[in-house]
Amino acid sequence: MRGRASTRRFAAFMERTGIFLMEYQSVRDRIDILNRTQTPGDFRSLHDAAEALASMIRQQGGGGSTVSLTMRGLGSSHHILVLPQAREELLRPVVAREMQRLYPELEDPIVGFVTGEPVDRRTRSRPEGGTPPQELLAAAIPHAAMRDLVEVLQASELQVDHVTVLPRVLQRIYAEVDSREAPTAVLMLLNGGPLFGFFFDRELRLVVEPPAEGETAQLSSQFVIEQLERGNLYLRQQFRGAQISRLLLAAEPAEFGPLSRAVEEGMGLVVERFAPQIGSSNAIAAAGAVLDAQDGRGLNLFPVGETKKRNAERTTRRIAIAGAVLLAAIAWWWAGNGVMAVIGWRNRINTLTVALDRRAAPLAPLREIVEKRKQSSMQIQAIETVAAERQKLQQLLQALSFAPQANVAIEGFSATRDAQGWSASVNGSAVSYQASDAVGSVHRFYRELPDMVNGTSIALDALSWSDPAKDSALTRIGFTLRYTTAPSDLAAASGTPPL
Fold first, then answer.
1. Phi and psi (nearest 5°) for 59?
2. How do strand 270-273 and strand 193-200 relate by DSSP bridges?
3. How close are the terminal C-alpha atoms of the chain, in Å?
4. What is the number of other CB atoms lying within 10 angstroms of the CB of residue 283?
5. How far apart are CA 470 and CA 473, in angstroms?
6. In terms of Cα–Cα distance, which of 208, 163, 190 is closest to 281?
7. Separation between Cα atoms, residue 66 and residue 6, nearest integer Å
8. What whole-number distance in Å separates Cα of residue 217 and Cα of residue 253?
9. By CB neighbour count within 10 A (0-12 exposed, 13-18 middle, 19+ buried), where does 486 fall?
């Protein structure tokens, strides 16, 4: 028999070497930590870690409570991907495919990701009108492992509301506590090894989890400096000479002093504490899951964990329905008050129309002449418009000759004409031995096509990836592009409707 649900809330950081658990409560816009507990371990699976976590919460009398989790390892994986900008439903299968390619051990994965700002490493504007790609922080975990975690916790009457990974916590805490845009390195010293994050333009650009030399307490300053220099080299190569100017360090007091002095002397960086108001590195890792779950748009690997987002959507729909009902009531009230005035004006207009028709009878022959001239002018203009629109269609077809230069094969093309202009749809594919080359070909064709046709808008409607089981040598990416372009100058000036 299930016990009564509790209002107590816990957050935990789980890694192979142990579990950090804290009880907290939300007070207005802050989080108050009520209790902290840490248990070392050597967990070989997520099942073992989940049993240890359930035991820790039961010992505190937390049955029926809710828990948010931050995971490191234990079957979870993460990676920063660079992909073309597209809708979430189009990106999700591509992200899942890339994560399985990078981590072959992932079977039936649950995938989550958060998107960053577009990556445009040039300082000048984009004259060709293309769109830069975007970076995504993606994470995945096998569905069976997540189901095992949930079943173990539910057996102890515990509810899971959010599961995220350590790099997302690093990204979320950095956005919460720091507002400066200077290139920055963040280092968290944890029992399972150090975690380095490198930020440029307030976006997480690189995550490094090097194997430690030994225990975290014995981490040498030279090892830390070497990792910082490697990250600094990456930022300098990728972002036009950018260099980190400071280090945010989360470490115990005994570690912070020696490391901060060594980094300041060896690299000339300003060293500050990372999220000192939260506390230790373990506490930061656990509290990050709570912050990531607050707005419902974080990186959540829990399969039914979008409760807040769904509640927000449901509230929005209710407000929209109430607004529509109110507008309908106002419209009926306005119509009822004005109906008599409308009837009176209609009778007045009918009387004036009859009087004008009587006076206009002598002008009937002139009206016929004017009407015939108008028809002749419209016929001539229609002929000229047809010629101009044929030239426009030829331009659309000639633009497709650019496809071989971008290593893209065109498999289908259709175009329609409406009052706003031409709407065209292009089906094609890019094939390469390297997935990145195929993605680059699609992106180049997507970026440069608008200039070829003087397009006003372009959209990526579909993106498909070949099955490596059927074709192990080549990667084929199929796509569907839809773009619009203005009508010919003659049609635009005359306002001619579609032919």
1. -65, -25
2. unpaired
3. 72
4. 20
5. 9
6. 190
7. 8
8. 11
9. middle
How many whole angstroms from its chain centre is CA 115? Answer: 3
Label residues 106-138 b or e (16+ Cβ within 10 Å = b).
beebbbbbbbbeeeeeeeeeeeeebbbbbbbbb
CB 398 within 8 A of CB 410: no
The residue type at 44: R
Q: What share of the chain is helix, strand, coil (3-state, %, to 5)?
A: 45, 30, 25
Cα 496 from Cα 420, distance rounded (Å)? 10
- 172 HSE (CA, 13 A, CB side): 26
3-state class (DSSP) for residue 40: strand
Task: Please report, for residues 146, 165, 172, 395, the alpha-carbon distance to residue 162 in angstroms, rounded to integers and kept in the order given.
Answer: 12, 10, 14, 52
Output the CA–CA distances (angstroms, integers) from residue 368 to 214, 242, 274, in the order listed. 99, 76, 85
Distance CA 139, CA 76 (A): 7
The pLDDT of residue 308 is: 47
pLDDT score at 124: 44
CA 357 to chain centre: 64
Task: For residue 226, give both structure tokens.
Answer: 């070497």
Q: What is the mean pLDDT of each run of 10 residues along the chain (499 residues)?
A: 65 88 81 84 86 86 84 86 82 85 85 74 52 82 85 84 87 79 86 87 85 59 87 84 85 85 86 85 85 79 55 66 82 75 80 78 73 79 74 72 77 81 84 83 81 76 72 78 75 52
- Please, are residues 102 and 80 in contact by the beta-carbon 8 Å criterion? no
Q: Where are the beta strands (DSSP E) in 209-346?
A: 246-250, 270-273
Q: How many CB atoms lie within 10 A of CB 490?
A: 17
